[in-house]
Amino acid sequence: MSTIAFPFATLPRTGTAPLIPVAPLADADRKPLTKKEVSADHPTWCPGCGDFSVLALYFKLIERRKLWHEKLTTVAGIGCSSRFPYFVQGHGAHFIHGRALPFASGVSISRPDLHVFVFGGDGDAFSIGGNHFTHTARKNIKLTYVVMDNQVYGLTKNQTSPTSPLGYKSKTDAWGSGDRPINPVKQAIAAGATFVARTSAMNPNHVLATMESAMDHDGFSFVQCLSECVEFFPGAFDAAIPRKGGVFNEISKDHDVTDEYAAYKLSDVAWPGQFGTFYKVNRPTKNANEAKIIADHRAKVGDAADWQILQKNFDRMK
Amino acid sequence: MSAVADTTASTGGQPKVTKINEAVIRLAGNSQDGIQAIGGFLARLAGRSEQEVMTFMTIPSTISGGPSIFQVRIGSGEVLTAGDEADMLLAFYQHSYEDHIRSLKLGGIVLYDSDHVTPKPEWQESYRHVGVPISSLTVEAIGGTGRDKGKNIYVLGLLAKVYDLDVTKLKKLIVERFGGKDASVLNNANSCFDAGYNHSLENLLKSYQFYAAPSKGGAQVVMNGNEAIAYGLLAAGVRFGAGYPITPWSDIMELLRKELPKYGGSFIQCEDEIASVSMAIGASWGGRVAVTGSSGPGISLKTEAIGWASMAEMPLVVIDVQRGGPSTGMPTNIEQSDLNIATFGGHGDSPRVVIAPSTVEDCFYTAIEAVNIARKYSTPVILLSDQGIATRIEAFPEPDLKTVVQDLSPDLTPVPEHKPYDLSAPGGITRHLAPGTRVASGKYPVVTGLEHDELGHPTGSPKLHMSMTAKRRNKLRALAAELPVPTTYGPNEGHVLLVGWGSTQGPLREAVDKARSLGEPVSALHIKYINPLPNGLEDIFKGFHRIFVVELNDEGLYGYGQLAQVLRARYADPRIQGINKVDGLTWKVKEILDRVRTLTQTPVA
After folding, report:
1. How far apart are CA A77 and CA A95, in angstroms?
2. A299 in contact with B at a CB cutoff of 8 Å?
3. Which class for B202: exposed (0-12), middle (13-18), buried (19 or more C-beta within 10 A)?
4. Nearest residue of chain B to residue A102 (CA atoms)
5. ipTM above 0.90, yes or no
6. The pTM is what?
7. pLDDT, tens digit, 9 for 90 and up, residues B367-423
8. CATH number at residue A181
9. Residue B566: closest CA among B508, B520, B499, B514
10. Which residue range is the domain that position A266 belongs to?
11. Which of A223, A274, B478, B591 is the most buried (most CB within 10 A)?
């Protein structure tokens, strides 16, 4: 049988960089990363875009929680907000439209040593990627998904989005949108997300606290973050900005975050709705379930080498 | 049976034994009758003996019911195809009898279930008819429960008697197959087998015996193409996969789902085809060479993400078990009509590697090769299998797993600096860094589907788009230069060259043997590396007057099948013509040769 023998175990990383060894670094010797160290490209967002705030707070989270460059795993799909990974100095992936969640799930399940952050917009999450949102939540894959919801398609310049309110006038609905908008919080709970929170880019402390508890959650943590598009939908979230005469209604401390029905009810509160953690429960993650399946199988094969495991199957086919 | 048959007088008043060197047996019934199981037993028996074996099956795409056949060819010499014509037809029902009698050679034996089949008088002269009340005898054998489940094993017993098969080995196979189940299942199977074996075939006087075959030297393994691909992926070190069920790809995902955890890996069943390919690419970025796969429409759905893997230069293995298309097409039939989508299925210029295994054994090694090419060249690799090879059972020499099995653990060694798209890398061949790898310079790479600079940051620069497009193309040229140049089957000069790819290698080779035996100067060339093509094919073409590309796809608008079109475009050689068909069945040797003879009567335009 002809096969090309490509030597792989020893294949070097290709490139022109010198292959000199790099000394390992103990975490204790490292200082938290500053904003300067963790920022990469200058964001392409319009001046005044709510997404700047989310990026700045991601940097803050990295500094506060002492996350190191090499562990930063930032994934996005397509859209204005999905440009996110280019602005972060760390490992990043800018994938195709709507599929950031399955891509990130592949990273999460195959690399349990990493915590994956996924950033994206409402079109990416609830329109083209709607199916993946449901199933990633259902499978409870361990990752944090922050949807910067501006209720409009910004990158393609003002078309109706799945969260655009009824009557919203866009280039595709000049007379006002007639399609009932998605309620992301309700959708997430119904799909089986185990951490569901809502925040607004105009309230930095709230965003940071929410992202932090999302990151600490063992499971699929979903954060809807209202983030204003100053270009196409200015003033969309004024009703939630006290400075502009609105109210930022935080969820009452009495709310039981494990009560699914209470969470649904809360998600239906009239615009601008409530902010904070709606729902948080512990349910085994896909990651844990897979790890258990692996552990059970590994226990059975003992310390057999890979080729010996395969040999057993081949012996049965003789 | 075959041309070489001599009859020896047997001793002790036993029926005469005829020595044969091969037999083609076609089993025809319905899909729930366990016909594949009989074929599987015969194939495995041959694998454990010195005979060679090849099978062919069709199944309906319905869950239960609908006609199903399994054809098995067992030979003492080299077996290349499942056979054009059958020596024996085993017919369970009237429709099996009527629909398949024409697949029997004249004078062949039709062994039919007389509980269900009424033989036709007009066929009595052409074929030897032997009726056995298979259904009722099966019911009797297992204690009259009124159900005829087990008649496949009864038939196996009958065949064991007719072909003087090794009963000890067969019984061992039955134990292996049913031993794990409830004891009554094994008991019933044994009773059915014994009843079949001991049934007195008074009117079938002859019994056949295979000539001893030359020793194969070393153990043989018996499996189908789907199994060989799955085991090849495991051997290659693939530890992550994601997929969505679709026939005939599903067997591969089921096997990987079951086996991967033993190796510390996972296979995830996803919500759809797009999620599967995306998840596999994510795992590849994570440092594993991951696999996804599908058939038919599923491949169409994956094309956008495959384009991303091409752009972002991410290793990825995509298994395409082709079936009849387009759209839902013919889910359980063979066709080689995905060459175009595999090679060109993406918007923009998105070079990728396409390879096609030709035998079940080749499926195993090609899967390993696909992984290694994906890894070395940071590219999506599409492995084009098909429904025929997926379900075909063959025996092949057991691989030396100790040397074949690879470890591909992610490499997270820290680096001083790294450019995932370094334009100065020789041959344009670069690799990405898996997340978790520290870069001492503090400059981290991004992988992306946007056109990008060397670090992966977006660019609108026409110069960079040109140089990055060239980089992605040049690395496949570098691969082409490394590929082995195929050699012809038969002399490298002659009148006709049959060019094929994928699972049709067997019939093409048998066609060459047949033509050569009649003095016709025909040779065959099998192309495994579809994209990029290996260098040097033009030199092979020079040795022949006519070049016919034999493919199981349509001749297209301009008269050429999918590979023929590629070869025409590359070599601009007017001698290249197509021999195509889309009946959903594998090539018969006769079909190929008839077409060759017709085409050679007209000169090249």
Report:
1. 5
2. no
3. exposed
4. B279
5. yes
6. 0.94
7. 999 999 999 999 999 999 999 999 888 889 999 999 999 998 888 989 999 999 999
8. 3.40.50.970
9. B499
10. 32-283
11. A223
